[in-house]
Design brief:
eleven-stranded mixed sheet, 569 residues, four-stranded antiparallel sheet, alpha/beta, globular
């Protein structure tokens, strides 16, 4: 087109200059993009069971979470604490909960634990908290959802490094705007950016609100070029079970077959997915659990409804994860965002006839709530789904939330990041303490070491998962690695494929049962017996002594104080 122009030379020179400038610009853009630190998004579900996602065998439709897992790395042997706040303390520190303030849960320390280091009931200051470290290294830091690591100004999310936050301070709450507390008669406690708030928006629904608020925070600074760390900490599916009517309607009739049929179907799905071996045997339910066929028609109707509400909450969480993933894709940040999804412990399994008498929940329900069938799942109902449905959620593993057996501490988890090989299933033993070291390696940030902001701190105990996520190694923890658990007197220790536990043998939910009357060590080989069915404590006496010695080592190194009486789950 320049052939007949009187100044062809000038045009060709201009064209060459523009082309060269364009190529240099693209190269610079690519360099800038590749040099930008990755965003980090934690997504934590509350009380979600091992089999509750489609990718883990569930009939509940979770296409958005399944897609992330399918294009990432699914972790089949990911371990947490038996309950929520100890897990969260380890997640944000990389250190055992007994060292960082959550040796017991807030307000539930026994007399011999009170005022002891590591049992403060909040995330203490012997650590450099992950959000603090990331903020120091030019990350935006945002949090929405459940905190449960401190109630005061100096232990709030703001104080621990979150630039913006909207947080529920307690362990749970109703999921709507009425601020229904999990315990007592006061309103559920919330903070926004460090300030206590007295009311919630009229259209508040926890899962949707926390997601929308996280998107709002990310969007507020997205053009300044800095990466973000988002901690999206859902309160779903923690009791009380509540969901919008439209969400519950979508689950109507799906659980009329009952928990026994659904349980067997999920187990079959786990085997087909390759998440458990074909020969894996299931741990039986509680002795007082009733077969579905023994329930009256009215009992079946009510029980199925409980699971419909639960499934609605899981489905809503998946929908909202899809919303934030879609947002990241729209703004061009999805491929540069490291996403880690996990549940904080096993499924909640208290029997339906459990009174929770020492917590005052029975009295609370009488005064606050309407649990008639036609009102189930609505803002003024207060429900949980019981041990039979919890067994469905947990799968083949032993027991559920509150226990140090596999059902209490083995959680669903996966990682999504483009550099990882999509569709991978990793069976390596990893724990929640390994998350912070992994994040710091992804972000190319060093841990502060022994001193942080003028105070001495503890070193991280966890290890980065990057070698297994990148397929460079089959393990991060060696065969002789010792990992321990203790909460409310229930204990466990794992060394290689061997694990020993202490849990009550008879009265599973009697908090005041003296440990000496009802607890004893049991020993299992998880390679041969992953569901902890066969106690080998007597026949493997040498191994048992080795494990007891390891327990004493773990207990001493981590400042474990066994409670004089059992106060919690």
């Amino acid at each position: 087109m320049f052939t007949n122009h009187p100044n062809k030379t000038l045009y060709w020179q201009l064209l060459i200059f523009l082309a060269f400038s364009f190529l240099i610009g693209c190269a610079n853009d690519e360099a800038t993009s590749s040099s930008k630190k990755p965003n980090i998004l934690f997504i934590v579900a509350d009380d979600l069971g091992y089999t509750d996602l489609g990718g883990y065998g569930s009939e509940i439709a979770t296409p958005n979470l399944d897609a992330l897992a399918h294009n990432g790395v699914t972790l089949t042997n990911y371990y947490v604490a038996p309950t929520c706040s100890p897990t969260r303390a380890m997640l944000l520190s990389g250190i055992d909960n007994h060292l960082v303030g959550m040796g017991s849960m807030s307000g539930e320390q026994s007399d011999n634990q009170k005022n002891k280091i590591g049992y403060e009931g909040y995330l203490n200051f012997r650590i450099a908290a992950l959000p603090n470290v990331l903020k120091d290294n030019d990350y935006h830091t945002y949090m929405t959802g459940k905190w449960h690591l401190g109630y005061d100004d100096n232990t709030s999310p703001t104080a621990r490094g979150f630039e913006r936050s909207f947080s529920l301070l307690a362990g749970g709450a109703g999921h709507f705007s009425n601020m229904l507390s999990i315990l007592g008669t006061n309103k559920a406690p919330y903070r926004e950016d460090g300030k206590l708030i007295d009311s919630l928006p009229d259209d508040f629904y926890s899962t949707k609100f926390y997601t929308d608020k996280m998107i709002e925070y990310i969007d507020s600074n997205r053009n300044d070029g800095k990466p973000f760390f988002g901690y999206l900490s859902y309160t779903a599916v923690h009791w009380p079970l509540q969901a919008p009517q439209s969400s519950m309607d979508r689950q109507s009739g799906k659980y009329d077959e009952g928990y026994d049929v659904i349980y067997e179907r999920r187990l079959s799905n786990l085997k087909e997915l390759g998440l458990i071996d074909e020969e894996t045997r299931s741990f039986p339910g509680l002795s007082e659990d009733r077969p579905w066929e023994d329930l009256s028609e009215q009992e079946k109707k009510r029980s199925a409804k409980l699971m419909e509400i639960y499934a609605a909450m899981v489905s809503d969480m998946d929908h909202n994860v899809g919303k934030i993933v879609g947002y990241l894709e729209d703004i061009g940040e999805l491929d540069n965002t490291f996403i880690f999804f996990m549940s904080d412990n096993g499924a909640e399994g208290h029997p339906l006839d459990e009174t929770f008498e020492n917590y005052g929940i029975e009295q609370k329900i009488k005064t606050c709530c309407d649990n008639r069938f036609e009102n189930m799942g609505r803002p003024d109902s207060y429900l949980w789904y019981g041990s039979n449905w919890a067994r469905v959620s947990v799968g083949p593993w032993r027991r559920f939330k509150g226990f140090t057996s596999e059902g209490g501490i083995k959680a669903p988890a996966f990682v999504h990041f483009p550099k990882f090989h999509g569709g991978s299933i990793d069976n390596s033993f990893v724990t929640v303490k390994d998350v912070m070291p992994t994040i710091l390696e992804v972000a190319n940030i060093s841990h502060p070491g022994k001193v942080y902001k003028g105070r001495e701190i503890l070193p991280m105990q966890g290890l980065s998962m990057m070698p297994i996520l990148l397929g460079e190694s089959d393990y991060i923890h060696k065969e002789d690695h010792i990992e321990g658990w203790e909460l409310f007197g229930k204990t466990a220790l794992r060394k290689g494929s061997w694990k020993m536990i202490q849990e009550p043998k008879e009265d599973f939910f009697s908090w005041q049962t003296p440990l000496s009357d009802n607890y004893k060590w049991q020993l299992f080989n998880l390679t041969k017996d992953p569901t902890e069915l066969n106690d080998l404590a007597e026949v493997e006496s040498e191994k048992m002594q080795e494990m007891l010695d390891a327990w004493e080592q773990y207990k001493k190194e981590n400042g474990v104080i066994i409670p004089e009486n059992v106060m919690g789950f």
